[in-house]
Amino acid sequence: MSPAALLLIALAALGLAFAGLYGLARRLDNYGIVDVAWAYAFGALATFYALAGPGWPVRRALVATLAVLWSARLGTHLAGRVGRHHPVEDGRYRQLRQDWAGHFAAKMFWFFQLQAGSVVLLGAPFLLACLNPAPALHPLELAGTGLWLLAVSGEALADAQLAAFQRRPARAGRVCDTGLWRYSRHPNYFFEWLVWVAYFVFALASPWGPLAVLAPAVILHLLLRVTGLPLNEAQNLRQRGDAYRRYQRTTSAFVPWPPRSADRDPPAGRA
Asked: Among 37, 94, 241, 244, which one is most buried in terms of CB atoms within 10 A?
């Protein structure tokens, strides 16, 4: 099957799936489920490419395995979070209800379609690797696999540390600043981005592999400028006020870095 055909089938299938998901979200009155579906969709997409792609079978199997394991872990983590808080909706979507008041339903439908399109766009590393016919793994693919192991482990650890903090009875008004959260205000986001860097490194061994840089670049932009840090920081400031402002003064926003004194300005590029 040609690359164009693979892309068109993936885009059509995901568009239909996310349209159905939109209908479910309306019935539940909780649009946070799109985050769960977005995470799981990457495993499904990589599996489709691995089954239909013309590349070396061992490479296709490895790509699918990496994507499915990461996708299942992240999707299950997000599903647990949505389930614990349902019917209360994630704060980001409550904010969108206010920002899009009057046209919320229509805009949210296209928001869901945008998520479907983003899965296909960001899945470029999977496609490129599954097209590669070379009958041996390249050192870059081994390096990408090693980086993936580090990134997924770091993200899982950050999520577990935050969950443990949130289970404490006296956490109200307090900020999680232990473990990885002592060195970054968003270590889960940092390691999530590192997962995409790992996919890019893996894809570099394939023809047209450098095009896969789009995936970590887009994810970095989303995390730093759109749906990641800006919304999360704003929500934390609303909920924790001065405690979070002190945390901002001492702790790197993204890249894990040793804490600094509260009376010092943050180093350039790390706040």
From this structure: 37
DSSP 130-189: HH---SS--HHHHHHHHHHHHHHHHHHHHHHHHHHHHTSTT-TT----SGGGGT-S-HHH
Average of per-residue pLDDT across 76-89: 81
Domain carrying residue 184: 141-271
Q: In angstroms, rounded to a whole number, what is the distance separating the alpha carbons of residues 233 and 20?
A: 31
**Measured in Å, how far apart are the chain's first and last C-alpha atoms?**
46
Same domain flag for 41 and 83: yes
Q: Return the closest-CA partner of residue 196 out of 259, 252, 268, 144.
A: 144
Output the CA–CA distances (angstroms, integers) from residue 82 to 36, 47, 183, in the order listed.
8, 25, 26
pTM summary value = 0.90
Residues 70, 156 within the same domain = no
How many domains does the structure of the chain reveal?
A: 2
Predicted local confidence at residue 228, as pLDDT: 85
Q: Inform me whether the pLDDT recorded for 5 exceeds 90.
A: yes
- Boundary residue ending a domain (77, 108, 136): 136
The dihedral through the CA atoms of 187, 79, 238, 102 has a sign that is positive
The answer to whether 161 touches 179, Cβ cutoff 8 Å, is yes
Can you tell me the distance from the alpha carbon of 263 to that of 109, in angstroms, rounded to the nearest whole number? 45
Do 132 and 168 lie in one domain? The reply is no
Whole-number mean pLDDT of the chain? 92
Domain end among 136, 170, 203: 136
